[in-house]
Every structure is written in C-alpha cells, then in structure tokens.
From TrEMBL:
<keyword id="KW-0378">Hydrolase</keyword>
<dbReference type="InterPro" id="IPR050471">
    <property type="entry name" value="AB_hydrolase"/>
</dbReference>
<dbReference type="GO" id="GO:0004806">
    <property type="term" value="F:triacylglycerol lipase activity"/>
</dbReference>
<dbReference type="InterPro" id="IPR000073">
    <property type="entry name" value="AB_hydrolase_1"/>
</dbReference>
<dbReference type="GO" id="GO:0018775">
    <property type="term" value="F:2-hydroxymuconate-semialdehyde hydrolase activity"/>
</dbReference>
<dbReference type="Pfam" id="PF00561">
    <property type="entry name" value="Abhydrolase_1"/>
</dbReference>
<dbReference type="InterPro" id="IPR029058">
    <property type="entry name" value="AB_hydrolase_fold"/>
</dbReference>
<protein>
    <submittedName>
        <fullName>2-hydroxymuconic semialdehyde hydrolase</fullName>
        <ecNumber>3.7.1.9</ecNumber>
    </submittedName>
</protein>
<feature type="domain" description="AB hydrolase-1">
    <location>
        <begin position="41"/>
        <end position="273"/>
    </location>
</feature>
<dbReference type="GO" id="GO:0046503">
    <property type="term" value="P:glycerolipid catabolic process"/>
</dbReference>
Amino acid sequence: MTHSDKHVRSGTTYANAANLLIDVGGTAFAYRDLGPRSGVPLILLNHWGAVLDNFDPRIVDGLAGRHRVIATDYRGIGASGGTAPVTIDEMARDAIALIHALGFETVDLLGFSLGGFVAQDMVLKAPGLVRKLLLTGTGPAGGQGIDKVGAVSWPLIIKGLLTRRDPKYYLFFTSTANGRQAAKAFLDRLKERKRNRDKDPTPVAFLRQLKAIKAWGRQAPQDLGNIRIPVLIANGDNDIMVPTVNSTDMARRIPDAQLVIYEDAGHGGIFQNQADFVSKALSFLNE
C-alpha cells in the first residue's frame, strides 16, 4: 500500500483533520497535519486575517496525497495563543521556531499573500531550512502597491458587508463571469468543514496584521538573489491586492525561479485554478 493510498483510506481530509497545538517558547501554536509521514514536510502560511479554515481544502488535499502537509496559524490568530505580531520579521521568527518545535530540519514552504512575505523572510533568515519555496499571490519587501493593501481592501470589505458576501468574493477574484463563478466555488469549499472549526480572527489581530503588511510594503528591498533554492511563483494576471507586477519582479530577481500567471484571475488565482496549481506544485516538489 502506498502512502497516498494510506492517506486516502485513513479518511483524513483537510475537512476533518484534527486541530493540534504545540508549545513554542511558551506560546501555543495551532496547526493541522495530514498526508504521508515520510519525506520533506510542506508548511503552509496563509493570508491576512486567515485562520486554519481559510486554506483551500482542494489544494491541501491535493498536496497531502503525496506530501505531509502542515497548515499553521500565526501567533494571535485563530486558536494560536499570544498577540499577533506587527512585523513580518516576528512572524518569520515564529514560523522558524514552530518548525524546530515540530522537530523538522528541512521543510518545503508554501506562502500565500502575507504568507509569501513571511516565507521569503524565513528563507533569507534561515539558510538550509527550506528545500523548495512556493510563493503565491505575493510580493517582495518594498513591492509595488503592497503598502496600499488596506486602502484597496476597505471599500471592498464594506461592499461585502453591504451585499452580505465574504469580502474575498471581491478581493480575490476578477469581476468577470469566470471570476464570480470561481469565487462562489472557493467560498463554498471553505465551508465544507462542519465541526471543530478554527476561531475567527479578532478585529485587533486583523489590524495588527495589516500594520505588518504596510511595513513590509515600505521596507527596503531584500536581496532576493540570495534565495538559492528552487522557487515556484504563481498568481493571477489581475491581482488588485498584491499587484501582479510583484510576481514578475520576484521571478526576475530570484535565480531560476519558475513563474505561472493565470489568465482572467486575481489574487486568488491559485484557488480559481486549484487543480492546475496542485499538479504544477506536485511536479515542482517532485522535480
């Protein structure tokens, strides 16, 4: 029986994976852990205001068919203890400490949006820790328009309240028929887990994370030429949150990075094209 068969037969999918806690320097960090026990684990780092239930279950399950996948909550978010950091630097230190607490010497990293900021910082801070890096819907320190995320988001967050829709419907997807359909499908997938859902982020944590995002947008650029590991970069061609030009910029600055840009897709391009993204991500991880 192969690992992937075992994973499927054991019936663990992201929708029913256990909520776990680990003590990291006196703070409890929340995570979920699924997939085969062998090989290099893949750590997932998510977007602004995201908790464990904001990872796309299709992407997690698709990757966990072949790889051990660990989805995490930042400090002060969801079921994790402590206070949400106001810098990417602290989030990166937390994630490195979490990986060590879990007993891993080498990991693969997938960061989406804010998670991609944290992932880049981790790779530069801890050479040798990360084997392969996936940067999705994200951008570099000092990247174009990143300090404007709040200004772009608030009107659409309010529009979400007024139309009784999750703001991600407007923020993550294009307003074409294709984008609207993808938005609805993605938001439906996020509701598949019925029991033991994570705690929603507090307004305070949400605002503290926004501070960290703005500071990242205003930070001096990092030397991405120092990222000497395989990198896959993916985004939609019409990202209004972290403008797509940032993905192109990272691909130019990181040696031998692979770039995937999805057409008629926004910030949530990997969610809109989840089957294609999973297949590309698996090929990249197995190369």
